[in-house]
Fold this sequence. Notes:
Helices cover 38% and strands 13% of the residues. The chain is an alpha/beta fold. It has one domain (19-268): 3-Layer(aba) Sandwich (Rossmann fold), CATH 3.40.50.300. The chain has a 7-stranded mixed beta sheet with strand order 3-4-2-5-1-6-7, with helices on both faces. Helix 8 (174-187) links the parallel strand 6 (159-165) and strand 7 (193-200). Helix 1 packs across helix 12. It is globular and about 50 Å long. The protein binds adenosine-5'-diphosphate and magnesium ion. Magnesium ion (MG) binds next to helix 1.
Amino acid sequence: MTSPPTSPTSESTPSQTASVTAIANQKxxxxxxxxxxxxxxxxxxxxxxxxxxxxxxxxxxxxxxxxDRTQIASSTYDLLIEDTPLEDIVxxxxxxxxxxVPATIELAGAEIELVSLFSREMRLANAxxxxxxxxxxxxxxxxxSLGLLTVNxxxxxxxxxxxxxxxxxxxxxxxxxxxxxKLVQSNLNPQLEVEGVVLxxxxxxxxxxxxxxxxxxxxxxxTTYRTVIPRTVRLSEAPSYGEPIEAYDPMxxxxxxxxxxxxxxxxxxxxx
Length: 272
Ligand SMILES: Nc1ncnc2c1ncn2[C@@H]1O[C@H](COP(=O)(O)OP(=O)(O)O)[C@@H](O)[C@H]1O
Ligand SMILES: [Mg+2]
Protein backbone atom coordinates (compact mmCIF):
# COMPACT_ATOMS: atom_id res chain seq x y z
CA MET A 1 0.00 0.00 0.00
CA THR A 2 1.28 3.45 -0.82
CA SER A 3 0.08 6.39 1.17
CA PRO A 4 -2.56 8.59 -0.44
CA PRO A 5 -1.25 11.51 -2.50
CA THR A 6 -0.81 14.69 -0.54
CA SER A 7 -2.21 17.97 -1.74
CA PRO A 8 0.14 19.86 -4.07
CA THR A 9 0.79 22.62 -1.54
CA SER A 10 1.44 20.41 1.46
CA GLU A 11 5.20 20.23 0.98
CA SER A 12 5.81 23.93 0.87
CA THR A 13 3.21 24.90 3.46
CA PRO A 14 4.41 24.46 7.02
CA SER A 15 1.98 22.89 9.49
CA GLN A 16 -0.21 25.56 11.03
CA THR A 17 0.45 24.88 14.66
CA ALA A 18 3.20 23.36 16.72
CA SER A 19 3.35 19.77 17.89
CA VAL A 20 3.45 20.08 21.67
CA THR A 21 5.06 17.11 23.43
CA ALA A 22 5.49 16.68 27.17
CA ILE A 23 8.48 14.52 28.06
CA ALA A 24 7.44 12.82 31.26
CA ASN A 25 8.26 10.01 33.66
CA GLN A 26 8.03 10.56 37.39
CA LYS A 27 11.19 8.54 37.84
CA UNK A 28 14.30 10.67 37.98
CA UNK A 29 17.40 9.94 35.93
CA UNK A 30 15.70 8.15 33.03
CA UNK A 31 16.82 10.62 30.36
CA UNK A 32 14.00 13.19 30.22
CA UNK A 33 16.26 16.25 30.19
CA UNK A 34 18.87 14.62 27.95
CA UNK A 35 16.12 13.75 25.49
CA UNK A 36 14.54 17.21 25.67
CA UNK A 37 17.86 18.91 24.90
CA UNK A 38 19.08 16.54 22.21
CA UNK A 39 15.82 15.74 20.46
CA UNK A 40 15.09 19.48 20.50
CA UNK A 41 18.51 20.41 19.10
CA UNK A 42 18.42 17.70 16.43
CA UNK A 43 14.96 18.87 15.35
CA UNK A 44 16.31 22.43 15.11
CA UNK A 45 19.30 21.22 13.04
CA UNK A 46 16.78 19.52 10.76
CA UNK A 47 15.05 22.84 10.13
CA UNK A 48 12.27 22.91 12.72
CA UNK A 49 11.75 25.96 14.90
CA UNK A 50 11.81 24.52 18.40
CA UNK A 51 10.87 25.81 21.85
CA UNK A 52 11.96 23.91 24.96
CA UNK A 53 10.10 24.55 28.20
CA UNK A 54 12.04 23.64 31.34
CA UNK A 55 9.38 22.63 33.86
CA UNK A 56 11.80 21.06 36.34
CA UNK A 57 13.07 23.18 39.27
CA UNK A 58 16.41 21.35 38.93
CA UNK A 59 16.79 23.08 35.59
CA UNK A 60 18.94 20.45 33.90
CA UNK A 61 17.66 21.40 30.47
CA UNK A 62 18.58 25.04 31.10
CA UNK A 63 22.07 24.38 32.48
CA UNK A 64 22.70 21.67 29.87
CA UNK A 65 22.21 24.33 27.20
CA UNK A 66 24.75 26.60 28.81
CA UNK A 67 22.25 29.00 30.39
CA ASP A 68 23.69 30.54 33.56
CA ARG A 69 20.75 30.13 35.91
CA THR A 70 21.94 32.88 38.25
CA GLN A 71 21.74 35.40 35.39
CA ILE A 72 18.17 34.67 34.34
CA ALA A 73 15.79 37.60 34.68
CA SER A 74 12.59 35.62 34.20
CA SER A 75 11.77 31.96 33.97
CA THR A 76 9.11 29.27 33.87
CA TYR A 77 8.14 30.42 37.37
CA ASP A 78 7.17 33.86 36.04
CA LEU A 79 5.27 32.28 33.18
CA LEU A 80 3.19 30.13 35.55
CA ILE A 81 2.79 32.36 38.57
CA GLU A 82 3.33 35.97 37.49
CA ASP A 83 1.62 35.87 34.08
CA THR A 84 4.79 37.26 32.48
CA PRO A 85 4.36 37.10 28.69
CA LEU A 86 6.22 34.25 27.00
CA GLU A 87 8.17 36.54 24.66
CA ASP A 88 9.73 38.29 27.67
CA ILE A 89 11.06 34.97 28.98
CA VAL A 90 12.23 33.01 25.94
CA UNK A 91 16.02 32.83 25.58
CA UNK A 92 17.92 31.97 22.39
CA UNK A 93 20.46 29.14 22.65
CA UNK A 94 23.74 28.47 20.86
CA UNK A 95 21.72 26.48 18.30
CA UNK A 96 19.87 28.42 15.63
CA UNK A 97 16.10 27.87 15.82
CA UNK A 98 16.34 26.36 19.31
CA UNK A 99 14.76 28.48 22.04
CA UNK A 100 14.28 27.95 25.75
CA VAL A 101 12.01 28.92 28.60
CA PRO A 102 14.55 28.44 31.41
CA ALA A 103 13.87 27.22 34.93
CA THR A 104 15.35 28.43 38.18
CA ILE A 105 15.10 26.89 41.62
CA GLU A 106 12.25 29.36 42.31
CA LEU A 107 10.09 26.93 40.38
CA ALA A 108 10.20 24.53 43.33
CA GLY A 109 7.89 26.93 45.17
CA ALA A 110 5.44 27.03 42.27
CA GLU A 111 4.22 23.53 43.06
CA ILE A 112 2.71 24.97 46.27
CA GLU A 113 1.89 28.46 45.03
CA LEU A 114 -0.11 27.04 42.13
CA VAL A 115 -2.54 25.35 44.52
CA SER A 116 -4.38 28.56 45.37
CA LEU A 117 -4.29 30.09 41.88
CA PHE A 118 -7.22 30.31 39.50
CA SER A 119 -7.11 27.67 36.77
CA ARG A 120 -4.09 26.13 38.43
CA GLU A 121 -3.81 23.11 36.12
CA MET A 122 -4.12 25.17 32.93
CA ARG A 123 -1.58 27.93 33.59
CA LEU A 124 1.04 26.54 31.20
CA ALA A 125 -1.52 25.63 28.53
CA ASN A 126 -2.83 29.19 28.57
CA ALA A 127 0.67 30.69 28.57
CA UNK A 128 1.69 28.65 25.51
CA UNK A 129 -1.42 29.28 23.42
CA UNK A 130 0.13 31.88 21.11
CA UNK A 131 3.43 30.01 20.88
CA UNK A 132 1.68 27.30 18.87
CA UNK A 133 1.67 29.67 15.89
CA UNK A 134 5.33 30.62 16.29
CA UNK A 135 7.08 27.29 16.64
CA UNK A 136 6.98 23.95 14.84
CA UNK A 137 7.70 21.85 17.90
CA UNK A 138 7.38 22.58 21.62
CA UNK A 139 8.99 20.11 24.04
CA UNK A 140 8.14 20.34 27.74
CA UNK A 141 10.69 18.79 30.13
CA UNK A 142 8.66 17.61 33.14
CA UNK A 143 9.98 17.20 36.71
CA UNK A 144 10.36 13.75 38.27
CA SER A 145 7.00 13.80 40.05
CA LEU A 146 3.31 13.67 39.26
CA GLY A 147 2.46 16.93 41.03
CA LEU A 148 0.87 20.12 39.71
CA LEU A 149 3.87 21.06 37.57
CA THR A 150 3.66 17.81 35.64
CA VAL A 151 -0.13 18.16 35.42
CA ASN A 152 0.46 21.59 33.87
CA UNK A 153 2.86 20.00 31.39
CA UNK A 154 0.38 17.29 30.44
CA UNK A 155 -2.51 19.74 30.19
CA UNK A 156 -0.48 21.98 27.86
CA UNK A 157 0.62 19.17 25.54
CA UNK A 158 -1.00 17.29 22.68
CA UNK A 159 0.87 14.18 23.65
CA UNK A 160 3.34 12.56 26.00
CA UNK A 161 6.72 11.04 25.22
CA UNK A 162 7.89 8.63 27.91
CA UNK A 163 11.63 7.92 28.19
CA UNK A 164 12.30 4.53 29.75
CA UNK A 165 15.77 3.63 30.95
CA UNK A 166 17.07 0.18 30.00
CA UNK A 167 17.57 -0.81 33.63
CA UNK A 168 16.11 -2.95 36.37
CA UNK A 169 12.51 -2.01 37.17
CA UNK A 170 12.29 -0.10 33.89
CA UNK A 171 8.49 -0.27 33.78
CA UNK A 172 8.02 0.50 37.45
CA UNK A 173 5.77 3.50 37.85
CA UNK A 174 4.89 3.69 34.16
CA UNK A 175 1.36 2.38 34.71
CA UNK A 176 0.85 5.10 37.31
CA UNK A 177 2.03 7.68 34.79
CA UNK A 178 -0.40 6.28 32.20
CA UNK A 179 -3.23 6.52 34.75
CA UNK A 180 -2.35 10.19 35.29
CA UNK A 181 -2.29 10.79 31.56
CA LYS A 182 -5.81 9.32 31.37
CA LEU A 183 -6.96 11.49 34.28
CA VAL A 184 -5.67 14.61 32.56
CA GLN A 185 -7.24 13.43 29.32
CA SER A 186 -10.70 12.98 30.84
CA ASN A 187 -10.64 16.09 33.02
CA LEU A 188 -8.48 18.73 31.36
CA ASN A 189 -7.17 17.89 27.92
CA PRO A 190 -9.29 15.46 25.85
CA GLN A 191 -6.78 15.24 22.98
CA LEU A 192 -3.86 14.11 25.14
CA GLU A 193 -2.32 10.79 24.17
CA VAL A 194 0.89 8.85 24.59
CA GLU A 195 2.74 9.51 21.35
CA GLY A 196 5.80 7.45 22.06
CA VAL A 197 8.04 5.53 24.39
CA VAL A 198 11.78 6.05 23.99
CA LEU A 199 14.28 3.53 25.31
CA UNK A 200 17.32 5.28 26.77
CA UNK A 201 20.76 4.32 28.07
CA UNK A 202 20.84 1.06 26.18
CA UNK A 203 23.97 -0.94 26.89
CA UNK A 204 24.56 -3.48 24.15
CA UNK A 205 26.94 -5.50 26.32
CA UNK A 206 24.24 -6.54 28.77
CA UNK A 207 21.38 -8.94 28.20
CA UNK A 208 19.42 -6.87 30.70
CA UNK A 209 19.24 -3.97 28.24
CA UNK A 210 17.99 -6.26 25.46
CA UNK A 211 15.46 -7.81 27.84
CA UNK A 212 14.08 -4.39 28.71
CA UNK A 213 13.81 -3.45 25.04
CA UNK A 214 11.84 -6.62 24.37
CA UNK A 215 9.63 -6.16 27.41
CA UNK A 216 8.82 -2.54 26.50
CA UNK A 217 8.13 -3.43 22.86
CA UNK A 218 5.76 -6.19 24.01
CA UNK A 219 3.99 -3.82 26.36
CA UNK A 220 3.77 -0.74 24.15
CA UNK A 221 3.97 -2.19 20.62
CA UNK A 222 4.19 0.41 17.87
CA THR A 223 4.13 3.24 20.39
CA THR A 224 7.76 2.36 21.10
CA TYR A 225 10.21 4.34 18.99
CA ARG A 226 12.42 2.18 16.78
CA THR A 227 15.38 4.34 17.64
CA VAL A 228 17.05 3.25 20.87
CA ILE A 229 19.37 5.72 22.63
CA PRO A 230 22.68 4.11 23.65
CA ARG A 231 24.42 4.75 26.94
CA THR A 232 27.49 6.78 26.03
CA VAL A 233 29.92 8.89 28.00
CA ARG A 234 29.74 11.65 25.37
CA LEU A 235 26.02 12.14 26.07
CA SER A 236 26.67 12.55 29.78
CA GLU A 237 29.61 14.93 29.17
CA ALA A 238 27.89 17.30 26.76
CA PRO A 239 25.76 19.17 29.39
CA SER A 240 28.85 20.27 31.30
CA TYR A 241 29.96 22.06 28.12
CA GLY A 242 26.49 23.57 27.75
CA GLU A 243 26.06 21.96 24.37
CA PRO A 244 23.70 19.47 22.79
CA ILE A 245 25.44 16.37 21.45
CA GLU A 246 24.96 17.60 17.85
CA ALA A 247 27.34 20.46 18.63
CA TYR A 248 29.61 18.71 21.15
CA ASP A 249 30.37 15.58 19.12
CA PRO A 250 28.25 15.24 15.97
CA MET A 251 29.92 11.99 14.90
CA UNK A 252 29.29 10.20 18.19
CA UNK A 253 26.83 7.34 18.59
CA UNK A 254 24.66 9.50 20.83
CA UNK A 255 24.43 12.24 18.20
CA UNK A 256 23.54 9.72 15.51
CA UNK A 257 20.84 8.22 17.74
CA UNK A 258 19.20 11.54 18.63
CA UNK A 259 19.36 12.62 14.98
CA UNK A 260 17.53 9.41 14.06
CA UNK A 261 15.03 9.94 16.88
CA UNK A 262 14.35 13.43 15.51
CA UNK A 263 13.74 11.98 12.04
CA UNK A 264 11.35 9.42 13.49
CA UNK A 265 9.57 12.12 15.48
CA UNK A 266 9.17 14.20 12.34
CA UNK A 267 7.83 11.24 10.38
CA UNK A 268 5.32 10.47 13.13
CA UNK A 269 4.14 14.06 13.04
CA UNK A 270 3.98 14.36 9.27
CA UNK A 271 6.83 16.87 9.28
CA UNK A 272 9.28 15.23 6.89
N1 LIG B 1 22.16 7.91 26.84
C1 LIG B 1 22.88 8.29 27.91
N2 LIG B 1 24.13 7.84 28.08
C2 LIG B 1 24.86 8.20 29.18
N3 LIG B 1 24.41 9.01 30.13
C3 LIG B 1 23.16 9.50 30.01
C4 LIG B 1 22.33 9.17 28.90
N4 LIG B 1 21.13 9.79 29.06
C5 LIG B 1 21.22 10.48 30.20
N5 LIG B 1 22.43 10.31 30.79
C6 LIG B 1 22.88 10.86 32.08
O1 LIG B 1 22.07 10.29 33.10
C7 LIG B 1 21.71 11.28 34.05
C8 LIG B 1 20.20 11.42 34.10
O2 LIG B 1 19.73 11.87 32.84
P1 LIG B 1 18.64 13.01 32.73
O3 LIG B 1 18.39 13.26 31.29
O4 LIG B 1 19.03 14.20 33.57
O5 LIG B 1 17.38 12.29 33.40
P2 LIG B 1 16.00 12.90 33.96
O6 LIG B 1 15.80 14.24 33.31
O7 LIG B 1 14.96 11.90 33.59
O8 LIG B 1 16.17 13.02 35.44
C9 LIG B 1 22.43 12.55 33.63
O9 LIG B 1 23.63 12.64 34.33
C10 LIG B 1 22.69 12.34 32.16
O10 LIG B 1 23.82 13.04 31.69
MG1 LIG C 1 15.47 16.10 34.22
